[in-house]
Each structure stands twice: as C-alpha cells, then as structure tokens.
What we know:
Elements: E1 10-16, H1 20-31, E2 36-39, E3 53-54, H2 56-65, H3 68-74, E4 76-84, E5 90-99, H4 102-116, E6 119-121, E7 125-132, E8 135-143, E9 146-157, H5 163-169, E10 179-187, E11 198-201, E12 209-216, E13 220-228, H6 246-256, H7 258-266, E14 268-278, E15 288-289, E16 292-294, H8 310-328, H9 336-360, H10 362-365, H11 368-379, H12 381-392, H13 398-401, H14 403-411
Parallel strand pairs: 1-2, 1-9, 2-6, 4-11, 9-16
Antiparallel strand pairs: 3-5, 4-5, 7-8, 8-9, 10-13, 10-14, 11-12, 12-13, 15-16
Helix pairs in contact: 1-4, 1-8, 2-8, 6-7, 8-9, 11-12
Amino acid sequence: xxxxxxxxxxxxxxxxxxxxxxxxxxxxxxxxxxxxxxxxxxxxxxxxxxxxxxxxxxxxxxxxxxxxxxxxxxxxxxxxxxxxxxxxxxxxxxxxxxxxxxxxxxxxxxxxxxxxxxxxxxxxxxxxxxxxxxxxxxxxxxxxxxxxxxxxxxxxxxxxxxxxxxxxxxxxxxxxxxxxxxxxxxxxxxxxxxxxxxxxxxxxxxxxxxxxxxxxxxxxxxxxxxxxxxxxxxxxxxxxxxxxxxxxxxxxxxxxxxxxxxxxxxxxxxxxxxxxxxxxxxxxxxxxxxxxxxxxxxxxxxxxxxxxxxxxxxxxxxxxxxxxxxxxxxxxxxxxxxxxxxxxxxxxxxxxxxxxxxxxxxxxxxxxxxxxxxxxxxxxxxxxxxxxxxxxxxxxxxxxxxxxxxxxxxxx
Length: 412
C-alpha cells in the first residue's frame, strides 16, 4: 500500500531498497529483534527488469530465509538449462531451477520481512545520507509528500544498479554499469508445453552478450537479451558505455533464434519491453563507509558471465545483516570498524568466485566457444557433469570457459 502516514523518525537499521538484497537483510535483522525500517521508491507489488530465473544459489538463500516453499508454489519449475550455440546445437544441463517474475518474488520477500517485524516504507526515494562528521547516522528520503529524515544506527544501501543513489551516498566508484539487459513478457499458452527449460543462446549477432527464453507460470515467457562487460574504465573512474542498441539486439535475437521469433510474432506482449543496467563482479562501488553498508547489486553482486544476480544479492544482504548482528550485543554498540571489517572480509571471500565468472564471460565475446563446449558436452558425460557443477557452484567455470579450460576440452 502507498505510504499514508509519516514514517518513524529513527530506528536501529534503515535498509534502503526492498529488492532481494534489502528484503533478505531486513528480514534477518528484524527476526533477530532489531528495529528495522525497509524503504523502497515504489509501492508494492512493483515490476523489476530481470530474467526471473531462479538457480540453485537462489533456492539455497530462499530456504535459509524460510520462504522457499512459498516461492516454489508460485514458480514454474524447470528441469534444466538449454545452452544453445551459434550453429544451433544445444546441450541440456540439469539443475534445481525455476522461474518467477520479480514482481511476485520481490513481493513475497517484502511480506516475509514485514512478518518478521520490519516496517515497510514505500514509496520513498533515497536522497542523501544524514551525517555526523563523516559517519552516516541516517538518511533523507523523499516522495511527493515531502522529505523525511530518519535517524539510524546503521544504513544499508540496497538500491540496485542505479548510479545516482551510490553517488549521493558517497560510495560510487564507477558511474557506468557493467552491463545492460532488455526483456519483455509474452503470453503464448500454446508454446508452454514446448519450452519447459531455461534457454540461453549465444550467437555472433549477439556478440558481447546472449539471448534468453525463460518459461514463467501460466503460459508466460520472459524473452530478453543481455550485454555484459559493456563499460571501459578510464583514469577518472567514470568509464564509458559500449555503443549498443538493445532493441536492435532483441530483434537480432528473434532473427537468429526461431523459438524467440515465434513467441514474439505469435504471442501477446504483456506490458512494455523494458531495459535496466547491471552491476557485476563486486566492483564499481565502495562496499562501506562509517555507518553504512552497500549490498546487493549496489555492491556489484551480479555474475558477469550469466547476468544472474538474485541469489548473490540475497547472499550479500544476509552477510550485511550478519556483520551487524555480530556487534549488536556489544555494550558499546555496533563499532564501525568491526562491522565494516567483517562485512568487507566476507565480500572479499566471494571475490575469487566472481573473478572466475568474469573470466568465463569470454564466451559472450567469442560465441564460437559456446559451440565448442556444447559439442564436447554432448559427447562427454564428464563435461556435462562439470557444466551442471558450474550451475550448482560446485565446479569452477574457469575449468570450462577459460582459455586453458578450452584447450583441455579439445583433448579430453
């Protein structure tokens, strides 16, 4: 419901952004007994541009939060990911997978945070941190009704890939995103029985990225394209965007991939085709400052290889909550240095995994590599098992998609 009464003026933790990272963080903190305010610039339920694929790390986070069964009852279950190379060959990689539009998923997570005791404030947009010297002691939020200053012992910034909140918070190190994506929803019940897997497609016409077709509940399909690694960092840290027309990229995807073409031509488009930026590889922003932690895609929690970020957003949100709770019982309160050191150490522990996925994103720039991996995986159960391990995060993607990994594929 829209905000109808003035928000509280203070709390233990103010979480700004009620996507997967922010809601996970707020739920965990509220469940531990902290007074938590969760603010978002939109009233719920609200739309969010995403591929909507829920892969194993997402399922693991949902189980930890206690909402997996609720999500599973709403989602479209799928048995595998179909990886399609430029020549049309494909391999089906099994995994624990499902699809649920973010409008529904995010609302489930927000309601769970509210049940745990968090107070949802929406719509309210983050405008600036409140400062005591250099320390953040709250935030100024705004909507059409005016400005609201909320004091907090800690602020968690979970505002996604947009640069403006990071800049206002003094955390932005790179204004340009790591990538961009475009998606549309198409209803085509006649194809629901034909497409029952996540389909990811590489092709020279999509160089630098990929296309996807994901089946959602009720004969709905998420059809989109993504471009990753689209920035080039310059000396001033601003970077620049690669020149790309995402709508043309989506048209190219439909031209080269028959299922996408058939869906777009014969299905009923639901709403607008929308685009959004991505922030990947845990880079592009400072992770903290005194009194504030950045989490989720604001901290770059999306994988550059696949563009998947829902599970990792929730994981980083939980890491932020754990860092705060580790100091909550301290008689001196949450010491800045201890909280920040714990949180940043936990993100540094994740960094090597993100680096490996960044290495693996070379397949997006060199689509012929997908043909090679598909060809070998169709002939080698061992390689197919490794692909499934990449999906489950029990295997390194570098073993398959780095140059050394490709060399091994040729002779294994």
